[in-house]
Structures are given as structure tokens and as C-alpha cells.
Amino acid sequence: MTNLPEPPIELLPCPFCGYNEPSSPHYDKDDELWVICCGGFDCCTMTYANSEPTVIERWNTRATDSRLEVAIGALTEASLVLPKGMALKSVEYALATLTGKDGI
Ligand SMILES: [Zn+2]
What we know:
Blueprint: E1 26-28, E2 33-37, E3 46-49, H1 52-60, H2 66-81, H3 84-99
Antiparallel strand pairs: 1-2, 2-3
Helix pairs in contact: 2-3
């Protein structure tokens, strides 16, 4: 029986600057914590945790915009009952409201 290599760790880009090559998780002996650093130019984003799996999970966790979830729910309901043209207008209105652009 052979040992299979571990799958590569997949880290999302930095949530603030979008840099796509954050550091691999490493143990910081001074702070006694696991850390992932962004590494992007002029970006100091770091995530800390007590274990490697937790620091990876924290780095890859993104907040969701509750307004967007509400809008998607409303649009889904609207698409079920409205004629196609009206549903499209509802989508355009919702997007304009969320983005603050009055493009309709
Ligand atoms: Zn960054």
C-alpha cells in the first residue's frame, strides 16, 4: 500500500486586495499561532488560528452581504409569478438599488 500525496491546499485570493498567492499556512513560534499572510503589495492582511485546518478555514471564509441574499430571494419569488419582461425589470431595479446606480 502506498501513501497518497495530500491534495494541495486551496487558498482563496486575499479578500481585501485580491492577491492570488497568499503564503502557505505556517506556524509562528513567537505568537504560537498558525498564520496565513496575504503577501500582496502594500497589503498586510493576516489570519491567525490555533491549528492549521482552522487558519485555512478562516482565510477562506467570506462574509455574505445580507442585502444581496434578500434581493435574490425576492427575485426568485418574483420570477415565479411575474411575466418574463416584468421579472427582468425587477432584476434591473434590484441591481440598480444595490449598486446605487440609476441606470434604468
Ligand atoms: Zn491582500
